[in-house]
Design goal:
Helix content is about 35%, strand content about 15%. The chain contains nine helices and eleven strands. The strands form two sheets. An eight-stranded parallel β-barrel has the order 1-2-3-5-8-9-10-11, surrounded by five helices. The protein has a two-stranded antiparallel sheet with strand order 6-7.
Length: about 300
């Protein structure tokens, strides 16, 4: 099981020296990869009072999930930069909200990140949950599930074919090609989400499942749902990766056991999430060594 760490996008700040030092220390500590999450815009909760309830579990929230004051570094440009600093790390988006973006542009940006990283990119994608952000991006929130399935097919075509002709419900691509194409043919596509329809989609077409959270009792059943969908689609379930997480907002104590649960469930990847644990800016650098003392990382 490979162990990575989530880039603390919301808390690390915008000092490029701190960002650089954090990435270098993460690589030196022994993490195998970095995960960078995604949101393009924040929302003013005073202008959109119903916004917070849209977040999964939002009915129980007392405040909006993210606001105009919440920082999100853009994932693919961040990965392109950090990959030059850390030539031995893998990188993943966790997850890019693909249906609110132009498919050909995502293909181009991901191809470039894959080239600059030396073929070390996994593209984690998902449908998202935020209709306000979709509106700001000029995209239709209601069709996001159908669109992401079409996007996967088009992304792979653009990455692997010199000339692409594609006619879908959302994209029409005739007589075009992407150059330079990525080193990986194609870039692995992982999907995030927990609903039955998403798990079925992962089994049918994704290279892996990005869970992104702590282990829960229903994880084995969700993995079984992915396996069933894969077998129905004539795919090998063993070829589909699983990425769990340990979240440090629940404390450092017990993370060895929490990681072990994911390993026993068959996870191929585990990401440590350092956010919302009370650390900001350069404090995240000091936290890396304490994490490494508790988890078996690569030499």
């Amino acid at each position: 099981m490979l162990t990575g760490i989530r880039f603390p996008s919301q808390e690390i700040g915008s000092d490029r020296a701190v960002i650089r030092d954090w990435a270098l220390q993460a690589a030196g500590t022994g993490f195998s990869y970095l995960v960078v999450n995604d949101h393009v815009v924040g929302v003013d909760p005073d202008s959109r009072p119903d916004y917070g309830a849209r977040f999964p579990g939002g009915a129980q929230r007392t405040a909006a999930a993210y606001s105009i004051n919440t920082a999100f570094h853009e994932p693919l440009t961040t990965i392109a930069h950090l990959s030059a600093l850390c030539p031995d790390l893998g990188f993943s988006t966790g997850v890019l909200v693909c249906p609110q973006r132009q498919t050909a542009l995502v293909a181009k940006q991901a191809a470039q990140a894959d080239i600059l990283s030396g073929g070390r990119l996994r593209l984690g994608i998902g449908v998202g949950w935020n209709p306000v952000e979709y509106e700001a991006m000029g995209a239709d929130f209601r069709t996001r599930g159908r669109r992401i399935e079409e996007q996967v097919s088009l992304l792979r075509a653009l990455w692997t074919r010199q000339i692409v002709d594609f006619e879908g419900d959302f994209d029409r691509v005739v007589g075009v090609g992407l150059e330079p194409r990525p080193l990986q043919q194609p870039i692995p596509i992982w999907m995030g989400g927990w609903s039955g329809i998403v798990l079925d989609r992962i089994g049918r077409m994704a290279d892996g499942w990005y869970h992104g959270g702590e282990f829960k009792p229903d994880v084995p059943q969700k993995i079984e749902a992915i396996t069933t969908a894969a077998e129905r689609a004539g795919r090998r379930a063993d070829d589909i990766g699983v990425e769990g997480a340990v979240e440090l907002r629940y404390g450092l104590e017990g993370i060895e056991e929490r990681a072990r649960r994911w390993a026993e469930a068959g996870a191929t990847h585990l990401v440590v999430d350092p956010m919302h644990a009370g650390y900001h800016g350069g404090e995240h650098l000091d936290h890396l060594a304490r994490i490494a003392q508790r988890l078996p990382l690569r030499a």
